[in-house]
Fold this protein.
Amino acid sequence: MTSLRFKALDSVFQRKANEVSGSSKITAIFGENVFTLKVAREFLSDEAYKSLVASVKGSKKIDRTVANQIASGIRHWAESKGVTHFTHWFQPLTGTTAEKHDSFFTIKSDGSSLEEFDGGALIQQEPDASSFPSGGIRATFEARGYTAWDPSSPAFIMEIGNGKTLCIPTIFVSYTGETLDYKAPLLKSLEALNKAAVDVANYFDKNVTKVTATLGWEQEYFVIDEGLANARPDIVLSGRTVFGHAPAKGQQLEDHYFGSIPERVYSFMRDFEEEAYKLGIPLRTRHNEVAPAQFECAPIFEEVSIAVDHNTLLMDIMDRVARRHKLKVLLHEKPFAGINGSGKHNNWSMATDTGVNLLAPGKTPKTNLMFLTFFVNTIKAVFDYSDVLRASIASAGNDHRLGANEAPPAIISVFIGQYLNKVLQDIKERVSAKFDEQDEAILKLDLHRSIPELLLDNTDRNRTSPFAFTGNKFEFRAVGSTANCANPMTVLNTIMAETLKKFKDDVDALMEKGEKKEIAIMHVIREYIVASEKVLFEGDGYSEEWAKEAEKRGLPNVKTTPLALDAMITDKSKELFESNDVLTHIELEARHEIELEKYIKKVQIEARIMGELCTSHVLPAAVKYQNILIENIKGIKEIGLDESAYSNQKQILTKISEHISKVSDLVAKMIEARKICNAMDNTRTKAIAYESQVKAPFFEDIRYHVDKLELLVDDQYWQLPKYREMLFLR
Ligand code: ADP
Ligand code: MG
């Protein structure tokens, strides 16, 4: 039997790029599968439309009769587009999306049938929730959960093959009200941020009544041939290669970046972009990344909750569309060792309903003071809660990336560029503690001139920082490529809300003492700069020196997920999330548990795959070749040649034999270590043990010997597609 590897290699050469019809104009299809407010206007009565608009904008509740009208309007729209089924679409803590399809079709009591979708079906559903992680919440309280309509995110139609399904974006809560998804806390964090930010923005502009957070994500991913991916059980089961020797040609040439996009991948991109446009996802850029077979796409930024939906939707779409092209998308943070991993930069800012980006330097001293206020508050928030922010991006996959030399380190620092550093230093020096004498000096601080329109070039140069100011937004770069952005965004919004609340208290306290508003604001800004400047770092974030320096500064550097997650459940974190009404301490503890369980499962699966691949793929191939060498040496001896005729073979044989025994030995020991971990009851202890007793001592070591064998063993016996094949054949 030919191995899957060779079958796959054969078919790779047969493949051609799919023809993609490709609409000529994006605007012609953009949002055609979305129940936008414009569509709502057409399909809803005045009353229903107004009620929907109100609930999209604020948090005004929709009553049942109006919900019935809205449901009926949505159904008519969906049916006009050939939809027969609907589903509540939500983002459970597994990290994927979930849906349960029901048809509009029902049977009345008299036996006649009709198509129906009422307000009840729109507003609430009870999916079979028992299989979604709840971190023990449901077990403790009530074994049921339900999904509830989130009107702030528009309904959309998902096309899968010929089927079309109406998707209602929902949040997922337990029967006792605890949130069980990523979306609900995100919405709450946006509300907390809105309140706090409006209060502070009102110091500068009384017309501001709403502040929303904005997000522009940049999704990195790998694309390889589907046949080759399927011939790698590790990719199929864990999304990454646990073995594989680096190809002779790696990314050292750096010729892939912005290089021409291979034809099959190009046609795949156009195809998924078209699907994305129909769903109103405003994709704008596509390009090759540094590593071979790695790419990136990014949309125009949107309000955070919509951007989060769009990102999760897109990950789903990419996966599905890739199959049409016989390609496999790898969203894993580190699919290939020795080659850059994938991240998902989260560009984040805040915008007012008066159309101002609060992190964009202004044109007048007043708007610049507003910019400075939000800018410095962000730095302070990140400094005060860097551990919580670190926890929000912790995952088994991201552990491979954070701290590797292509990704920001696990130390959270903030890069703001020389220019703004100077501005902050000026403020620190010139605004001193003595109020009376300082009024003049402060007012003379010419903020107008000192922060002119910043050139992006001035701020965007340092790519090694995990949290960088890039001209008019902060870019959180440590987020993993598979992550649901909702998690880091929830934390960012919440720590910002908390910091702004304190800021307002501090400024108000000074004003009550009779200080002028501007003076009070400048003083608190100065205080915050002094308090948080330790988090600012301009140098090379990847360097050893920085790790040392950060330690001196007392900045946390937690490298592994099980320990990084501790920050979720500290008293500080509970206080933060509870007081801002984002997550209760019970929800935090449940989430902490779920993240630990996810970590354990991931490492466990990888360890199993390693063991299995060794025994069923690697060792048989190595032994086969070992036997051939033995036969060869025996034969040479038999015909009477002396040792020089087989000394090379003997050397190879010795090496192969050494690696074989190392692999068998290490795999056996790893299985033992796993058994010990599996017997542990406490989830945290178990996760830590999986990291320190299974992953750390064995993964790299086993891999080393397997990869050596890959180089030594005759290619025709090697069952697993090699790096050069996966990365360079398209
Ligand atoms: P890169 O980081 O690759 O150099 P850009 O800096 O041009 O790319 O932009 C990256 C992302 O930042 C884009 O998705 C863009 O939409 C987003 N972005 C721009 N302005 C904002 C903003 N005010 N809020 C959130 N995201 C933004
Ligand atoms: Mg970027």
